[in-house]
Write a structure and sequence with these properties.
- The complex is a heterotrimer.
- Chain B has 1 helix and no strands.
- By secondary structure, chain B is an all-alpha fold.
- Chain B is rod-shaped.
- The N and C termini of chain C lie far apart (59 Å).
- In chain C, 44% of the residues are buried.
- The chains are: A mainly alpha, B mainly alpha, C mainly alpha.
Chain lengths: 232, 48, 245
């Protein structure tokens, strides 16, 4: 198959996988919903830990939001890979002459979707609990959310694939993933804070650029690495 | 600034001590592993 | 035999460079004796990052050649790397307290990046233990090591950016040692320590590699025995009387 045709075939496969995962998510509504509820609960608990001074909570809000997204995200990417192991589907997929990059991409897209839903639902929770006005900064916030979610999905899909068949996977996934996700967290929180504060130092663009660069690098590295994983 | 002395001692001590400890442990583990592996010589190993 | 000589050389070199750094070289004008910690902190950091690079490259090499010896190299470099990373952080903290007044400084990109390096290494080593099959383990480790290696420059860059926007303190920068304006004696002392540590690193790598190879042979032998036992157990028992019929 020549280049363009192969690429289109890959994308088609990726999209098919993403749709399959999305359908599983929607049908198994309980698991996805529980994760979102858990993340909201984390935000609530932060309130107890750092409150009741609203000013302090408002200052910490960007960091707390993204921590909640990270915790919820860990559960999400793990769950998306669990779907396959339960009926050996991952092994099945790997056996077909399907480009492994396509599998990775499909799962990452599904992960992205789930992360966007998670983040989107957490925004109003943050607004209410920490007294933040989101509307003014909405476009910048959403852009940050999208870029952050892409990065998390890229890295998370890879590590979920790495840990899915291991014993002690519940702890290995965060243990391996969190150091890698540190720059993403840093940049996303800074961008969120800048967006909410009206970007006084004009740094928003820089942080978003860093996020975009991170996303690109991690998507490429994740796709490359994932291929070797399925080869076993 | 000789109130920095305890830090200098702690810094150097732990690092050099740690190096020595690790080296000693390595040699011990290596001897044990070689004994356990028996008489299976390997071409790329020097007995030095 | 050659390795043994290397080991002796390493010990002598470290001893000599240490003596020089602690008792011969004069103290820094601004940072006083605390600055001497740099002579052991900087080489540790250098070797930590070198080891990390070796781990990543050996992993890539394994994915390419599928030679388990490359995996032995990766493992050795990772274990030794963890140690030097811990040393680097410890040295950084011991230097930080007298000079900065605190053990930890978030805005120092080197310290924070090295802390994450430690986390990545530890994760790598723990991860390795969870797979028993040597080839699977090597492939998985290589892939994990690769992503971790990609992450390190990103981390360093983003922390530097993080600091840049906060006008971090510049009183004590570890960089001063490597500053071209630094007195020659300081630079030579640092280079001497760096050289001595690197020789020690080379010796440690060789020994750790030998250990990995020996343990791999052991693992192999154990596995072959188990397979043979399992086969024997699966065969039907033949009674001696029947066998001669």
């Amino acid at each position: 198959m020549n280049g363009m045709a192969a690429l289109r075939a890959d994308l088609g496969i990726a999209w098919a996988i993403a749709r399959k995962d999305a359908l599983s998510e929607l049908r198994g509504r309980q698991a996805a919903g529980s994760t979102i509820f858990f993340a909201a609960l984390v935000l609530l608990l932060f309130g107890f830990a750092l409150g009741p001074d609203t000013r302090r909570l408002a200052e910490a809000a960007p960091g707390l939001l993204w921590l909640a997204i990270v915790f919820g995200g860990l559960l999400t990417v793990a769950r998306l890979h669990q779907l396959e192991t339960e009926d050996g589907a991952l092994e099945e997929l790997a056996r077909y002459p399907v480009e492994r990059r396509a599998i990775y991409l499909g799962k990452a897209i599904a992960g992205l979707g789930a992360m966007l839903v998670l983040g989107g639902l957490l925004l109003p929770v943050v607004a209410i609990l920490y007294g933040i006005d989101l509307l003014a900064a909405a476009p910048a916030l959403l852009l940050t959310l999208v870029l952050g979610a892409i990065g998390f999905a890229a890295v998370g899909t890879f590590y979920a694939g790495v840990t899915v068949r291991l014993r002690a996977r519940e702890v290995m996934l965060p243990l391996l993933m969190l150091p890698v996700i540190a720059p993403l967290l840093l940049a996303a929180v800074k961008a969120t804070a800048a967006a909410l504060g009206g970007d006084p130092l004009g740094e928003l663009a820089s942080w978003l650029q860093l996020l975009a660069g991170y996303d690109l690098v991690m998507l490429l590295a994740g796709a490359a690495g994932y291929g070797f994983l399925l080869e076993e | 600034m000789s109130d920095a002395l305890p830090f200098v001692v702690a810094g150097w001590g732990v690092i050099l001590g740690g190096l020595g400890l690790y080296a000693a442990t390595l040699l011990r583990r290596l001897a044990a592993a070689r004994r356990a592996a028996g008489n299976e010589p390997s071409p790329d190993e020097d007995r030095g | 035999m050659k390795t043994r000589i290397l080991g002796v050389v390493a010990v002598l070199a470290v001893a000599a460079a240490t003596w020089n750094a602690l008792f011969v070289v004069p103290a820094d004008l601004n940072q006083g004796d605390a600055q001497r910690i740099m002579y052991v902190h900087v080489p540790s950091a250098w070797l930590a990052y070198l080891s990390f690079g070796v781990t990543a490259l050996a992993g890539i090499g394994y994915l390419w050649k599928r030679d388990l010896r490359l995996d032995h190299v990766a493992l050795s470099a990772a274990e030794i790397g963890v140690m030097f990373t811990a040393f680097a952080i410890w040295g950084g903290m011991m230097w930080g307290q007298p000079v900065w007044g605190v053990f930890w400084q978030w805005e120092d990109p080197r310290l924070t990046t090295t802390a994450l390096l430690l986390a990545l290494y530890v994760g790598y080593l723990l991860f390795r233990r969870l797979t028993d099959d040597p080839h699977r383990r090597a492939a998985r480790a290589a892939v994990v090591g690769l992503i971790a290696a990609v992450d390190i420059p990103i981390v360093h860059f983003s922390v530097e950016w993080w600091r840049g926007l906060h006008q971090g303190p510049t009183i004590g920068s570890p960089d001063r040692l490597l500053n071209p304006a630094a007195p020659m004696q300081f630079v030579t002392a640092l280079l001497a320590m760096l050289g001595a540590f690197t020789i020690a690193w080379a010796w440690l790598m060789i020994r750790r590699y030998q250990l990995a190879a020996a343990e791999a042979r052991l693992e192999d032998a154990v596995r072959r025995t188990r397979v043979a036992e399992a086969r024997r157990a699966a065969q039907p028992v033949v009674r001696p009387e029947e066998a001669t019929r």
